[in-house]
Amino acid sequence: MLKQALSIWNTNRSNADENFWQSTLTQYSFVFSQVFSMPVVIFGTKTYVGGKSLEDTGGKQPDFLLQSELTSHVMVVEIKTPETPLLSKSPYRPPDVFAVSRDVCGAVGQIGRYKDTFLENYAQLHLKSKERFLLADPKCLVVVGNTEQLETADMKDSFEYFRRGQRGTEIITFDELFKKIETLIRLLESGAV
Q: Which of 38, 118, 124, 159 is the 20 to 30 A CA-CA neighbour of 148?
């Protein structure tokens, strides 16, 4: 399955269909364990975490809720696509500072809203859920873009400064996610494990 997941990545690096990636990451959900360094399973996809008004609008549904297999705590994941821009094309402050794209900023804001809504509605959702889960300051993950977009050292620095400055939300690109799978395959095949 590791090689299948890697093969799908290698043949779909330019696929800009978010539904394709939602389906692929659902099928190969083990890749998320490589990000969190703990065994996780999908607790839900497009799962309601609260926020509806009396008019039945405004409900929040992150792309994935992951659950630690050992502690039952839930994590929130938002995905975009490998083609989602990471940075603006021209420098924000020439010559070496690039602004993070609207899509990346939006995804970070979006997942922050999901987290807050989930925490606000936890007691009610926990009581009504058939599946048991815990929610203590949930980790958040945004999977977006591809580092191949970062053509210069200044662009790489700008992206890295932004994501390292995020408190409570980890940002990883699709190629970084699948590079972890490639590394795991190499380790297993080398007998180093």
A: 38
